[in-house]
Amino acid sequence: MKILNRIIKTVFFGFLIASITLFSGVIYLNRNVEENYKVKNGETLEIESKIPITAVYKGQNLTRVSGVYAPGQEFEVDLKAFGLIPISSAKVEIVNDLQIAVLGTPFGMKIYTDGILVSDISAVNTANGSKNPAKEAGLKIGDYILSVDGKKVYTNEDLGYIVENSGGKKMQFEIMRNNTKVYLHFCGVKESNSNQYKIGVWAKDSTAGIGTLTFYSPTENIICGLGHGICEGDKGQLIKINSGEIVSAQIIAINKGKYGTPGQLKGRFKYETLGDIKLNCHQGVYSNFSGNLKFTDLTEIALKQQIKNGEAEILCTIDGETPQSYSCKIEIQKSNFNNATQNMIVTVTDKKLLEKTGGIVQGMSGSPILQNGKLIGAVTHVLIDDPTRGYAIFAENMLETAQGVSEQQLKDAS
Known about the structure:
Blueprint: H1 2-32, E1 36-40, E2 53-57, E3 60-61, E4 74-81, E5 85-95, E6 99-102, E7 106-121, E8 124-126, E9 129-131, H2 133-137, E10 144-148, E11 151-152, H3 156-164, E12 170-177, E13 180-187, E14 189-190, E15 197-198, E16 201-217, E17 222-225, E18 231-232, E19 237-238, E20 241-255, E21 264-281, E22 284-288, E23 299-300, E24 310-316, E25 324-332, E26 344-348, H4 351-357, E27 368-371, E28 374-383, E29 386-394, H5 395-413
Parallel strand pairs: 1-5
Antiparallel strand pairs: 2-3, 2-4, 4-5, 6-16, 6-23, 7-10, 7-16, 7-20, 8-9, 10-11, 10-12, 12-13, 14-15, 16-17, 17-22, 18-19, 20-21, 21-22, 24-25, 24-27, 25-26, 26-29, 27-28, 28-29
């Protein structure tokens, strides 16, 4: 009888432990398995997991069915561990082969803001001491001044002319702050040295810089680069673009990166226009293409579930205008797998690149990353405390944004 009780207890506790383990595993998978997948027409759905996961649609295993769905078709599937245990559901979209022209070439950006960007606020020296009318009225660094007394301001000169000729009267400032319009009312004060009215604002109406082009999509006629947005200030606020263009450029020098100090590629514009900027967003800079770059072979974009941790290559230009391939390793950020940016950690392993740049430097943002002959992403940021490492974005996310830009242009034209 005692032996039987022991057997029963052993079986019971074994079953309990197995149930708890299984329950915990289901919860873990539910939180860590992707909720959205794209599957290329004619291919099967692959789900990266230590435990076999099957996608079930209308009673069929999607991982065993290929080429029977139309491009653009979307449907929901049930995800099951070992093909039996329900985990969660996911949305699947069928897509055509994603063919693009990989670049890796340097480009220049000339950008004009929507209104003028307040970059600093300082006191004005007057006959009655220091005054700070803009700050006292509530103007903040990062605000955009759109108009003064109903008059649009496009440049610093526009703002200066209006304020200097205000006669000291109260003016209405139309401000864009975090996508919300704010109206402030205040007067300029007369500066002692110039005897002109000032409000104590330093502003920017344009900016320029060097980056790396990632790819050109012939289907959308969109060219894109950087892999991150053009931002202003410590908070990384995206610059609101009124107009801008991308131009060809060449790299002329390198400031090597060191621990704690990011390096930089120095370049110069060639002023051969490649296109007008249509979007500045967290996934990069996107432009219609109207230049003369020559595209030969097209390359396939790897979907994010097809990317594997391990060896890869970076295509970038660190001298002149011609990109070269350098070895690296990539590691997928599981916590950022579903995010729009910073999806991978990239580590430079190429001795030649490390010797010349120290790793990843400013200006390399947008450099394509390839694995097994497919484009998987682009370099976006360097880690300040380790210049050999940085972040990268999935190429799939960049292409999705490019497709959105193209669709918006078609709507605007209709």
